[in-house]
Design goal:
Layout: E1 3-4, H1 15-21, H2 23-26, H3 37-57, E2 64-67, H4 70-84, E3 89-92, H5 98-109, E4 114-117, H6 128-137, E5 141-144, H7 158-167, E6 171-174, E7 194-198, E8 209-213, H8 228-231, H9 239-254, H10 256-277, E9 282-283, E10 297-302, H11 312-318, E11 321-322, H12 338-342, E12 350-355, H13 362-377
Parallel strand pairs: 1-11, 3-4, 3-5, 5-6, 6-7
Antiparallel strand pairs: 2-8, 7-8, 9-10, 10-12
The structure holds pyridoxal-5'-phosphate.
Pyridoxal-5'-phosphate is lined by residues 69-71, 74, 97, 99, 146, 150, 175, 177-178, 198, 209, 328-329.
């Protein structure tokens, strides 16, 4: 049996997304910047996709910029947000994805900003009092705090953070890569200045993404070149990626509640079965809390075991189960997780992130639990 439980790393593409993309690999090959009919038909399709994304998020098409993915969108928002708005201080947390953390660290190394990383407790909860104190002490700040964490699933309260940022006149960027396509984002009411998406996290194509920037917080371009994306991103558009991400988002919104109900039930069953089957099992961050963490992520901390020490992911892989030990994007290299380190996680315990999608079944969960029970029964 093969089980794919690494959906926070990437998801299988929806057949309907592939169907939507195919004509743009075959018949509609014009360059969207060309003024002839071959170009115009592709330009029209791109603008239709932009309108669709904007409608779903309750934004305007002028606020949506297509990118190569979440990483580029984060880089653009942060580097250009800082530069355009004369920002001198940024506030983030040690739990952010490297697309945010490394970008801000480079800005700091170049002397553009002073960087504050907020304290988090052992469950990965951010110190909100420290956020307010830091905003008060540093008038010209940018806040970058993710909507939900890709490793432990903790969901941050964007309304609370955004209201504080607004109160102190700060620019608020949120990395929404893990929630886009899984939760509703209503940008008319959500107090954020910029958010991002990566299409491959919600059954769209890899190498597709977008950046939303609120219209009264316009920023300079990150990539210079042609006039594509209304001068915000030079380079011939990834047409199939744009068609694909818009279709994937449309499908996600069509039955978001249904997907959530299905996946949440899998996660609940997984938690209960592990608690019943493996003594001393724990869950990292808030991932055991179905309301305060992503329904797509469960981060399991297993008791110290000689047979599995450092080998857990390998042993699961041998059993046909694909899961992840840290941030998906840098998995493969066993460099350890900066998120679990920030939580002071006991290094003697092995952790594994199981992440789910609407394509997973209860049989997948039961199989993984059985295999984990076998692996940990070795020493029983
Ligand atoms: C929270 C978060 N931000 C950013 C990224 C990077 O997105 P992309 O792979 O589309 O560049 C990821 C990917 O894992 C992520 O989980």
């Amino acid at each position: 049996m093969k089980v794919y439980f690494d959906n926070a790393a990437t998801t299988a593409m929806d057949e309907r997304v592939i169907e939507a993309m195919l004509p743009f690999m075959k018949d509609h090959y014009g360059n969207p910047s060309s003024v002839h009919s071959h170009g115009r038909e592709v330009r029209t399709a791109i603008e239709r996709s932009r309108k669709k994304v904007a409608e779903l998020l309750n934004a305007t098409p002028a606020e949506i910029f297509f990118t190569s993915g979440g990483t580029e969108a984060d880089n653009t928002a942060l580097v250009c947000g800082i530069e355009t708005h004369g920002i001198t201080h940024a506030i983030t947390s040690p739990l952010e994805h490297h697309a945010v953390l490394h970008t801000l660290e480079v800005c700091e190394q170049k002397g553009k900003i002073k960087l504050t990383k907020l304290d988090v407790n052992e469950q990965g909860v951010i110190d909100m009092d420290q956020l307010e104190a830091s905003l008060k002490a540093n008038p010209n700040s940018l806040v970058s705090l993710m909507h939900a964490n890709n490793e432990i699933g903790n969901i941050n309260d964007l309304n609370k953070i955004g209201s504080l940022a607004k109160e102190y006149g700060a620019f608020f960027h949120s990395d929404t890569v893990q929630t886009m396509g899984h939760y509703v984002h209503d940008l008319k009411s959500l107090p954020v200045d910029s958010i991002v998406a990566g299409g491959h996290k919600f059954h769209g194509p890899k190498g597709s993404g977008f950046l939303y920037v609120r219209k009264d917080k316009k920023i300079h371009p990150f990539i210079h070149g042609g006039a594509q994306e209304r001068n915000m991103r030079g380079g011939t558009e990834n047409v199939i990626g744009i068609i694909g991400i818009a279709k994937a988002l449309e499908l996600a919104y069509e039955d978001m509640a249904g997907h959530e109900t299905h996946v949440k039930a899998l996660k609940k069953h997984f938690i209960e079965s592990l608690k019943a089957g493996i003594p001393d099992v724990e869950f990292n961050g808030l991932s055991e809390d179905l309301d305060k963490s992503l329904y797509t992520v469960l981060n399991v901390s297993l008791p110290p075991s000689e047979a599995n020490a450092g080998m857990l992911l390998f042993n699961l892989d041998l059993a046909g189960i694909s899961a992840s030990g840290g941030s998906a994007c840098s998995s493969g290299a066993t460099v350890g997780s900066h998120v679990l380190r920030a939580l002071n996680h006991n290094p003697e315990r092995d952790s594994v992130r199981f992440s789910f999608s609407r394509y997973n079944t209860i049989e997948d969960v039961d199989y993984a639990v059985e295999k984990l029970k076998e692996l940990y029964a070795v020493e029983a």
